[in-house]
From TrEMBL:
Pfam families from the UniProt entry: DUF2147
Signal peptide start-end: 1-26
Domain DUF2147: 35-153
Name of the protein in question: DUF2147 domain-containing protein
PANTHER family: BLL5882 PROTEIN (PTHR36919:SF3), BLR1215 PROTEIN (PTHR36919)
InterPro entries: DUF2147 (IPR019223)
Species in which this protein is naturally found: Janthinobacterium svalbardensis
Keywords recorded for this protein, A-Z: Signal
């Protein structure tokens, strides 16, 4: 009886450890949005920017790392349409994505700022295609009333 009890405890501990390791693995590597993402311009289909997403205490934040701009365009534009702390701040280095938390399937409860119009929207994000793409949705009120963009993991 003592051996059965001991085996049962060992099995339970091993199963718990595997469950914990499995959930951590699911968010490591390409199964987490943490990393660098290339945004694509909806109209031209050309790369628009690089966004670096970091995670702190389970909360995601995305910052513009680089803009892909033509030689005749301002290479370091300021967010003249933004309000609050971002008003007239450089777009490169600006935090545009914040507050996203993993809910078991996707990252929800965040906000995203569009420097082109200065507006901030509720947001959510979901990894697709094995973690190589990130479906980012900005919306007003409920996700149905919004717009999605597909970001591509930068190599």
């Amino acid at each position: 009886m003592h051996t059965i009890f001991k085996t049962s405890i060992t099995t339970s501990i091993m199963m718990a450890a595997l469950a914990i390791a499995g959930s951590a693995t699911a968010r490591d590597g390409n199964y987490t949005p943490v990393g660098t993402w290339k945004t694509i311009d909806d109209a031209s289909g050309k790369p628009k920017s690089l966004i670096v997403i970091t995670e702190n205490n389970g909360v995601l934040q995305g910052k513009i790392d680089k803009l892909f701009r033509g030689p005749d365009e301002d290479q370091n534009p300021k967010c003249d349409k933004c309000t609050g702390a971002n008003k007239d701040q450089p777009i490169v280095g600006m935090v545009i994505l914040s507050g996203l938390k993993y809910d078991g399937k996707e990252w929800t409860g965040g906000e995203i700022t569009d420097p082109a119009n200065g507006k901030t929207y509720k947001s959510k994000a979901e990894l697709t295609e094995g973690g190589t793409k990130l479906q980012v949705r900005g919306y007003i009120g409920v996700p149905m009333f919004g717009r999605s963009q597909t970001w591509v993991r930068a190599e």
